[in-house]
Amino acid sequence: MTPRWAPFPSPYRTDFDKKDSDKTDPADTIRALGSSLKRDERMDLGLAGKTALVCASSRGLGRGCAEALAEAGCDITLNGRDAETLKAVGEYISGKYGVAVNHVVADVSTGEGQKALLAACPQPDILVNNNGGPPRKDYTELDREAILAGVIQNFVTPVELAKAVLPGMTERGFGRIVNITSMSVKMPLEGLDLSSGARAGLTAFLAGVCRQVAPHGVTINNILPGKFDTDRLKGGFERTAAATGQTLNAVKAASAAEIPAGRFGTPEEFGQTCAFLCSVHAGYITGQNILLDGGLYPAAF
Ligand SMILES: NC(=O)c1ccc[n+]([C@@H]2O[C@H](COP(=O)([O-])OP(=O)(O)OC[C@H]3O[C@@H](n4cnc5c(N)ncnc54)[C@H](OP(=O)(O)O)[C@@H]3O)[C@@H](O)[C@H]2O)c1
After folding, report:
1. Is the whole-model pTM more than 0.85?
2. Residue pair 210/219 in contact by the 8 Å Cβ criterion
């Protein structure tokens, strides 16, 4: 595939002239830079003691948000469908950051799952709405059932959870809702029409609601990931490699080369942006769509 952008020289990429096998993964450099900061060198986000309900957070971007919020001093409720993974991640986060972490094994898209989440964390100060995305499919392959499932996953579920937590937030005079959506809200991506449509609907719905709750110290924002190094992205690369006969590394390299930053984003970077949007410093940011894409979306606005 011809890269749409020649990768720009970046302070993190000093190895363009090296053989592939000798190159370091730029994401590892980013991680090392982040973790080299001592705790007292990090910005105080004013979140110590707050409670955060982070949906779909045992892996990937949700986990990145949970960790960054725990690092900022929040008690965390984790969620996912695999009990063993959740238990291990919960123990890791509470051990590393010294905050209280509980977890709820549940499908967040179901009424029972949401009930269990709200029972475990009845009055969250922070809600991170996240879920699996619909599988990549051509629109011609989507029947009514699949369309409704996608809309429930990425529109109905986050709206229902926002509705459930907003009264408490407005009453207490502080609240943050961050929705993990997608770059596909702004830019059509082949095979992701259902994801784009449901998430664009969510964006429009909450654009009105956020103005209603703004006088009460509550903000609602969306983070739009471009390409992040998570299991979801890996699944897509594996499918492309199998379909085209290319190696996994070749598929990944071609995909990274399309991004002006020359690399994929990391869940840690994603989480830090989420934590900042939840912070006391971000009280005047609401109804915004924050694109995290290393420059992939090709527009000035
Ligand atoms: N990664 C990217 O570059 C990218 C780009 C654009 C949009 N997005 C969107 O961002 C969201 C997160 O993506 P990701 O890359 O972090 O995915 P991921 O690495 O596959 O992680 C998904 C997480 O959600 C949990 N999960 C999935 N379905 C769930 C359900 N029904 N109930 C509760 N938990 C559930 C998974 O745990 P279990 O499987 O154990 O339940 C896991 O913890 C997705 O909606 C994706 O479409 C991602």
Report:
1. yes
2. yes
